[in-house]
Amino acid sequence: MFFLNENIKAVIFDLDNTLYDENVYIAEVLDIFSKKYSLNFDKNKFIYNKDLRNKSNDIFSFWLNSINFYSKEYQEELFELYQNISCQLKLYNDAKILLDFLYKKGIKIGILTNGTVKAQKNKIKCLQGILQYNPIIFYARSLGKDFEKPHVRAFEGILNIIEVEKINVLFVGDNPYTDIYGAKNFGIRNILVKRERLDDEQINSDLVVKKLDEVMKLW
């Protein structure tokens, strides 16, 4: 049976869709853009459409094409907004509960995230309350796109600054490939948070939870 104990000295989290809902962030970008160009955009409908990432890796191109409004210039404008937008993001409630628990126990908290460094730094800036946990943050893209998760260098990067041995680390993420495969390949314990159904994806994580606060029961 999978369990955690006093040997865990650090818990490293993925950022997007693990600690907060990235659809909310993207919806803010699209809302500003839509208002500028007088486009109809239902922010709430977009936020609750959890299938969007399965349809396209380039969400802005996909969205622009879906409303017959695509141009390279508009795509670039959206990406610029994505890197610089000012908004307020909230931690998932279950994420906040777990972070509070870990922080009070004196366990180091890390964040390992893929994506352009500028955009990911902006998300951290917008994510209310995250800095109170003094997270050690490593932006995998700083190594180059080829070395983002699941590459071992991404995991090595954060372990070098968090200064905890592999055996004492737990990784938590929502993506079976970049997060879970990456963590397992690197040799650290891992938990997949399965907030939404993952159709036809093989899950080989050490443990699967639906909400992060379930992790506390394992201590």
UniProtKB/TrEMBL annotation:
InterPro entries, A to Z: HAD-like_hydrolase, HAD-like_sf, HAD-SF_hydro_IA, HAD_2, HAD_sf
Pfam families attached to this UniProt entry: HAD_2
Any one Gene Ontology molecular-function term assigned to this protein's record: phosphatase activity
TM stretches of this protein: none
Cofactors: Mg(2+)
Keyword Metal-binding: yes
Record-level GO BP terms: small molecule metabolic process
Annotated keywords: Hydrolase, Magnesium, Metal-binding
Protein name: HAD family hydrolase
Lineage: Bacteria, Pseudomonadati, Campylobacterota, Epsilonproteobacteria, Campylobacterales
